[in-house]
Write a structure and sequence with these properties.
This protein is an alpha+beta fold and 350 residues long. Helix content is 25%, strand content 24%. The chain is built from 8 helices and 17 strands. The strands form 5 sheets. Strands 10-11-12-13-17 form a 5-stranded antiparallel β-sheet. Strands 3-4-5-6 form a 4-stranded antiparallel β-sheet. Strands 7-8-9 form a 3-stranded antiparallel β-sheet. Strand 8 and strand 9 form a beta hairpin. Helix 2 runs antiparallel to helix 5. It is elongated, with a radius of gyration of 27 Å. The N and C termini lie far apart (57 Å).
C-alpha cells in the first residue's frame, strides 16, 4: 500500500483489518496476508467486469487528487464532480454485468437460500427464515429474498414463538458468555421507532406496551458503563439475572436463583431509590423468605428480604434520582469492609 501511495499510517491498519473481518484474507506468520476463496473470487469477478476496480492505481490516483486539493493546486468541487461521475458510470456498468460475478460464485459457493436451518418466521410472508450460522451470522428469507444481520460472537435461538407487535417477525434470543437479550430481526436492522438505535435488542426498544421492551423490564441504571440500564432478562429463569442493555457492557447481576417467577411493575418505583418494583415468587417448599412466605413484592435494592438474594459485583447498581433524571453516588474510598450482605448493599446504594 505504501508502494502504490494508498492510505496513510492511520488508515492502512484499518484497511487490513477490514479485509480480514470480511473473510477476504487470513493473516499468516511473517506479517503475510493469504487470500481466501472469497477474496480470490471477488478479485477475479472484478477483473472480468471492470479491471480498474482492483488496480491499486485507481485508489492511488484519488489520493493524489486529495494532495493537490490540500496544497491548493486543485479545485475541490471539480475533483469531487469528476470522481462522482467516474464512479457513477463504473457502478452502473458493474450492476449491468453482475452475472459474471454470479457465475464465479455459483461454482464455489452454495446459494444462501440452500444453506442454514429453519428458525423463525418472517413478518412479511410468514414463511420460515433460515439461520446462516457461518460468519457473519444472519437470517435469510428465501421467499422475500431478504437477509437480516444478527449480533455476532454468540448463539441464536427462537424465543417461545413470541411476535414483535410492530412488524410481526418472530423474536429470537442472542446469548454470548452468560449475557443474553431478545431481539426482533427486522427492528435490529431497520428500527421502526424513531428513538431506537440500529442494532438494538428489545431491551433498548422504547415501545410503551410490548412486554419485552425496555419500559416494561428496566430496573435501574448500570453503574459499570453509566450509559445503559440494568434490564430483567425474561428468558433467564430459573437462574434469573439482570444485564446492561448496552451491548458492549458486560455487567450481569444474578438474582433470585430458583424463583419460579420474577416480574417487573414498570409503573411502580421504589420511594427510596427510584428503582422499579419487582414481584418475586418461589415454590412454597423451597422459599428462602421468612415464615414460609413464597411471594414478595418490593425493591431489589432496598427490600430487606430481596437484597440478600442478589449476587452483587462492584459498582453494578446505581440509585435513580427522583424528579430530575437518574444518577447516584459511588462507593468511595477508605470505607471499612462490610461485615454482612446488608452492609455491603448499603455501601453501594447509599
Amino acid at each position: 500500500m505504501e508502494k502504490h501511495g494508498i492510505g496513510t499510517d492511520a488508515s492502512i491498519p484499518v484497511h487490513i483489518n477490514n479485509i480480514c473481518v470480511r473473510n477476504f484474507v487470513t493473516i499468516a506468520s511473517g506479517r503475510r496476508l493469504i487470500p481466501n476463496t472469497l477474496g480470490i473470487l471477488l478479485v477475479h469477478g472484478y477483473q472480468r467486469i471492470d479491471p480498474d476496480l482492483v488496480k491499486p492505481s485507481m485508489r492511488s490516483e484519488i489520493e493524489k487528487q486529495f494532495d493537490l486539493i490540500a496544497s491548493g493546486r486543485a479545485n475541490f468541487d471539480l475533483v469531487l464532480a469528476h470522481a462522482v461521475s467516474t464512479f457513477q458510470a463504473k457502478y452502473k456498468y458493474f450492476v449491468e454485468n453482475t452475472d459474471c460475478m454470479d457465475q464465479l460464485f455459483e461454482l464455489s459457493f452454495t446459494k444462501l437460500s440452500e444453506t442454514g436451518k429453519s428458525l423463525s418466521k418472517c413478518g412479511r410472508c410468514t414463511r420460515y427464515m433460515k439461520l446462516i450460522s457461518q460468519k457473519p451470522m444472519r437470517l435469510h428469507c428465501k421467499n422475500c429474498e431478504a437477509t437480516y444481520n444478527l449480533p455476532q460472537g454468540g448463539s441464536i435461538k427462537l424465543y417461545q414463538s413470541n411476535i414483535c407487535p410492530l412488524d410481526q417477525f418472530e423474536l429470537v434470543v442472542y446469548n454470548a458468555g452468560g449475557k443474553s437479550f431478545i431481539l426482533c430481526p427486522y427492528c435490529y436492522n431497520f428500527p421502526e421507532i424513531e428513538d431506537m438505535a440500529k442494532k438494538s435488542g428489545c431491551n433498548k426498544c422504547p415501545h410503551p406496551t410490548c412486554p419485552n421492551a425496555a419500559p416494561q423490564l428496566s430496573i435501574t441504571m448500570c453503574q459499570t458503563c453509566d450509559e445503559g440500564d440494568l434490564v430483567l432478562d425474561p428468558n433467564s429463569g430459573p437462574a434469573w439475572r439482570l444485564s446492561c442493555n448496552e451491548l458492549k457492557c458486560t455487567c450481569v447481576v444474578k438474582i433470585f436463583a430458583g424463583a419460579v417467577r420474577v416480574a417487573v411493575s414498570p409503573d411502580t418505583d421504589c420511594e427510596t431509590c427510584g428503582s422499579s418494583i419487582l414481584t418475586v415468587e418461589f415454590n412454597p417448599e423451597k422459599t428462602p423468605f421468612k415464615d414460609g412466605v413464597s411471594k414478595i413484592t418490593g425493591c431489589v435494592i432496598c427490600h430487606p428480604e430481596l437484597s440478600p438474594l442478589v449476587e452483587l459485583s462492584r459498582q453494578e447498581f446505581k440509585r435513580r434520582r427522583r424528579g430530575r433524571g437518574r444518577g447516584g453516588r459511588g462507593r468511595g474510598r477508605g470505607m471499612r469492609k462490610p461485615r454482612n450482605k446488608q452492609e455491603e448493599l448499603d455501601q453501594y446504594f447509599v
